[in-house]
AMP-dependent synthetase/ligase domain-containing protein (Gossypium klotzschianum), 345 residues
Amino acid sequence: MVFLPSIHVIFICQTQEGQIRRCSPLLEKASLPSNGALASDEWKAVPDIWRSSAEKHGDRVAVVDPYHDSPSTMTYKQLEQEILDFTEGLRVIGVNPEEKVALFADNSCRWLVADQGIMAMGAINVVRGSRSAVEELLHIYNHSESVGLVVDNPEFFNRLAGTFSSKATMRFLVLLWGEKACLSSGETHGVPIFSYKEIIELGRESRVAHIDSHDARQGCKYEIIGSDDIATIVYTSGTTGNPKGVMLTHKNLLHQIENLWDVVPTEAGDRFLSMLPTWHVYERACEYFTFTHGIEQVYTTVRNLKDDLRHYQPQYLISVPLVYETLYRYVLWISSMLINHLRLS
């Protein structure tokens, strides 16, 4: 796999050069140098959408995640802050711009925060779900040259641990859900482990210190994420051999975000039920799009889909033909049951 270099707008502080802070220019506008040379009012990178959405839809509910422990609900303002904290937390633990971070997890509000946090600090996320084979995940991790791993939960990592500990090099491990105490002992071999909440807390403290300290800001070199920079790497299914990495730029995803309204004229306050694997490009682009229009996204599963359709009554569901065919057969079955009941009565 070949990674092409990108051209960046760079601002070097007047004092000594220190940490490189690559930024999503609209999302982190408040912490960028005040001379306006870097900040932007336009979307240059995918995470920029959160600043616009927080301004327009701040107190509206953005995400509802009812099936994790504990269930989560966040407004657009809260979601933006969570993404900013996760972004900064990654900087604190030593993730650098343009490095690849493997995000192996399933649908959840924390998946979204991790996805956007990785992008927002100029790193590249490498995505896959938890149901993939261990050897496939190992191939994706090593082939992409990922430096660290963000996983769904301890149970999932325990399945990977034996293979990854001996065949992959990890600088860090982040658990989106669950407790570190549930990890198999001895399998991480000194790799620093962080919970989601720890990353958020590290980021929150660092953001406050950075904003409050003139010296900290002056000691940094700031770079703007460009639209042609790689945002994510999505691997193919591997049905014709080893999975192959597809590099998607911020511009690629922003094109979908900016143009889908011509097909789906959504309105703020509409509800979207998210069921497809959120790391699939189709689902992912559609979700980013809905968030720019103030839609409430509810995470569901195949098992809970029927009940959630009834309970949440969403305006939108993005899926594949097999799911619609199954729902159609279910509706036909219910209809026949009702007809038989009426006949008997």
